[in-house]
Task: structure prediction
Amino acid sequence: MSTPNALERATRVFAMVPSRRYTGYAVLDASGVSSRGFGSWSLRRRKTEAQQAASIKDRITETILCCAPTVIVVGVPIRNGTEAASLRDAAECMAKARGIPVVRRQVANAEELLLDGCGDGAEDGLAKLLIGAFFPELAGWLIERAGTRRYRHNAFSALALALHELAIRSPLAAAVISKDEAFEIGAWKALLAEQAQRLYQQEKL
Result:
């Protein structure tokens, strides 16, 4: 029988927020953000839907080969247009073809979880929270990409999705990469405690 610790070491989440302009992505495990596992793919030069779908499939394949995720999360934003929906379908088909479990999550749920009591809706509020409470090494993103808000926004939304999924599947791993500031987020602490208890109960069975 697998132990919770073994499960957590094996869990690596690849999350993405498909968009016809900038598809944000993040790969996360117990060690933090994977090398080459954070950013946005610009699809603006791919003018047709078919070209964009082909491009996102290529990028997903590259990330899978590079990072070897154990689960893929496809984010659904509040503004769920048909064009983005076709990209999500293409992404999910590619992931399933590779034999990797795929789940679809609402982007807003992950963002609201992390911003609970800490976000005021200001520009880059989510990015600043994620940098301060989890990933200070990403602080340069707010400076280097100061003129491309949408480019970086989708990347940080994908990172929020990855964090949420890691907490669900491997709460101890999510706790390890949380800084002190993260434990001041009530909803985050509650989710970690709830999922840790769930895994403990499963281990007893």
About this structure: The longest helix spans residues 149-169. The two ends are 10 Å apart (CA to CA).
